[in-house]
Fold Phosphoglycolate phosphatase.
Amino acid sequence: MAEAEQSLVLWDIDRTLLYVGDIDRQVYRETFAEIVGRPAERLPARGTGVTMPLAIRSLLLCNGVPASDVPQLLPRMVQLLPQRLAAHEEDLREQGVLMPGAVSALSAVHEQTHCVATVVTGNLKPNALLKLGAFGLDAFLDTEIGGYSSDDEHRPALVAVAQQRAQAKLGAAFTRSNTVIIGDSLEDVRTGVEGGASVIGVASGKATARELASAGADVVLETLEDVPRLLDEITTVTQSFVER
């Protein structure tokens, strides 16, 4: 039997693998206050999956910062945000929670010799590494080849970033036919549809299973707890895309 082609598995982080509650929002508050010099009255919506640079831009504009000031303030906030999250590292461990089945699912995918597991996330890379490290999840992922909002604020572009990094490191070509995103949000689905990957939606966030399917997810799971089914679906979507 021929050896299975390698598949690139791109995990989302927030509400797919773990949930950090209000910590991200607190970090936005602290960063805004330090850079702008006053408290933020309105915060980014929860669980949308938008990239951090876009969330920061919205945070600035929704709190009355003139659009002409955004190009100067946004990079400063992007630079400060990881420092502020690092100061809450203990809070991540104490207040954050793992999503049901996350560790078993990550471990099982990691053990598949034909699967290359990394992340595509709206988090800045330092923030992503802090969150994953707080729960030891980085042990199951090659974070060097991931796609982060530090790379591009347009989330669908991160698929190609991860594919190119994986190809450079492993010498194998990764395209829509052998790349799959696993995520909970409508942004995760859009990232795959527009960016070039199949999508396994997980109804562990704010989007319902029906909403994920309607947005274009190839498969929708209620949770990550049914590991054998997850592995089967990864194989199915990465081997059958060209036949659809």
About this structure: Residues 7-19+97-243 form a domain with the Rossmann fold fold (CATH 3.40.50.1000). The longest strand covers residues 7-11. The mean pLDDT is 94. The chain has two domains: 7-19+97-243, 23-93.
